[in-house]
Amino acid sequence: MLPGICNIFEKMETTPLKIQLQTLPDSPGVYQYYDKNGKILYVGKAKNLKKRVSSYFNKSHDSHRIDVMVKKIRDIKHIVVNSETDALLLENNLIKKYQPRFNVMLKDDKTYPWICIKNERFPRVFPTRRLIKDGSEYYGPFTSFKTVNTLLDLIKGLYQLRTCNYDLAEEKIRNGKYKVCLEYHLGNCKGPCEALQGEKEYNENIEAIRNIVKGNFKESLQLFHQQMRDHADKMEFEDAQRIKEKIHVLENYQSKSTVVNPKINNVDVFSIVSDEGYGYVNFLQISHGAIIRSHTIEMKKKLDETDKELLELGIIEIRQRFSSMSREIYVPFKVDVGEDIKITVPQLGDKKSIVDLSHRNARYYRQEQFKQMKIVDPDRHVNRIMAQMKEDLRLSVEPRHIECFDNSNIQGTNPVAACVVFKNGKASKKDYRKFNIKTVEGPDDFASMEEVVFRRYKRLLNEDEPLPQLIIVDGGKGQLSSGVKALEALGLRGKIAIIGIAKRLEELYYPGDSIPLYLDKKSETLKIIQQLRNEAHRFGITFHRNKRSSEALNTELESIVGIGDKTVVELLKQFRSLKRVKEATLEELTPVIGLSKASIIYNKYHPE
User: Which segments cross the bilayer (predicted)?
Assistant: First the structure.
């Protein structure tokens, strides 16, 4: 692929903070504040990024340090993660790496705790803050020692494990080098140091413990619930409360972290999200099992490049910019970026999760760019969409004014139709119109479509109102042909573009063309057409239901001799439903419609 096929955009000027705050996502994540020189000022975590970051700018602060920091902020970056726990862990990683000036906590060399299953004969299980590459298994990290201690208490209550650090080699045990300690006599250990417990039995316990620290402790929770109930029955409420707290910790336990994983070390992760004109490539840098950087670039397409081509160019650009030396990268599909780099396309597990996280950040970045564009330059956004629709739908002019028709009836009863209007890609509800079908007998969608299209544009012509650039009919070839027939009768064939959309596979049909057009499911053009179709359907169904309900009510009341339209309206206005009219007493009816008509209504529903 030749360089220069697409442009890589970097903001020449930082987007104003007010706009950045408006477009932040309502998701958990980590935010980073930068000064005018691009130097990081502060790293923080949030359950809801938009609310947390906005709070810095919406109120005065008691702390002078925070006031000074807020005045220096010129740019905000963020990384979206899956949970509040992951945000806490990612915040810890970034603070330790970048040592931001205004962060006071977490700058020391302490890390969050792990549970270690030691790589040795008769493995020990213990908490640690240090990860040593000796083949041991590490689970976590945990955001509090309370969770670690609860899990270890559960493990110790279920299994007897050794706590000594002896080398329990088979030869040393056979020679009787060790003697059982106090833990054995207390019943906390079965004495593998004197061969009182076999290695097979011990390893079976370790396998069960692996399931517990992975979060598979359904049986243990059931046991705890039973113990809590037993204590409560015996009026031992303090013991019951202690077990209840353990249950709460276990039920909220998160065994896996996306942002910190010792199995994923020193790799670069890339993903891409694209639309008709741009590609957005996200980069996550993982060092020593933890995410330490996230960055997204916007790439403008020039020659209709594929996602593969864009991603390859983005990988080369980003790795050069950040001087990455990682020899392995994770990507969503195969790419060609040189023989020296190992390419991994994860299908499941932890590696797939980290690629999904990268894709999520790319998607949020794209959404934020769109939001910012709408705020800063709404006309540019509309112009881009209109130009894209013109190209996608092969139109001669941009469809600034679109009208969509839909029929609604149930087995031919109360047939109606609806017309909804979009101007510049947005609904113009004041221009919506609804139609009662006048000339068609029975359930005939084709004839109904021809009638309403003819009536709509005959009126616009008579009143010298502007015509749309595009007409959409909800249905396939039959409805489209009916619409075309109506336009021909009015002399508008060829003057207004008309297409039909079929629901099953979202096919778009054109007059005189039997082969439908299929748009990309991610296309903004298709989304606007679907929105039009759905809005026409909603509007038509609502009209149809109201008409059917009204006719059902009116027909029964108006069929009573001596009761007219005005009386029916007064009754329904007062009693709200036919059921309440039927149940009303003569005394309740009389003040509303007078004694004479009240007697007629009352006697109709109370013949006795």
Answer: none
